Amino acid sequence: MADCDLSWEQTIRRDSHTREADFEDVIGACSLDGVWKASYTAFTVPKYCCYRRCVTAILGIPLSLLWGFLFACLSFCHIWAVVPCIKSSLIEFQCLSHGVKVVLRKET
Questions:
Q1: Sign of CA dihedral 47, 50, 53, 55
Q2: Where are the transmembrane segments (predicted)?
């Protein structure tokens, strides 16, 4: 038993700077194999079940709609605002560059 306590203390010292806790840290490595396997199953199955079923069902559809709406808005702005502004600025800069070339050629 002293060996288990020493292992537990070493685990606490080793992981004292982190905030995450694995299953092995919570339950400990000093239990019987059958008890450890059963408690591991009892710990992980509801965790994954809740995550996969509940959280995905509750948040999956609203978040997909939100991301679809944001992508649509971004595409709309890019097609109707960004690209025309870039094209018009390129046309303006082309006209200005011709004017600058004419001025520089007259001065030389």
A1: negative
A2: 57-81
User: How far, CA to CA in Å, does 1 sit from each of 9, 12, 94?
Assistant: 12, 17, 84
Q: What is the DSSP letter of 18?
A: -
Instruction: Find the DSSP H helices in 50-82.
Output: 56-77
Residue 18 vs residues 4, 11, 14, 21: alpha-carbon distances, Å? 21, 11, 9, 8
pTM of the model: 0.45
Candidates 3, 45, 11, 49; CA nearest to 27 is 11
pLDDT, tens digit, 9 for 90 and up, residues 84-104: 999 999 998 988 888 888 888
Q: Are 44 and 24 in contact (CB under 8 A)?
A: no
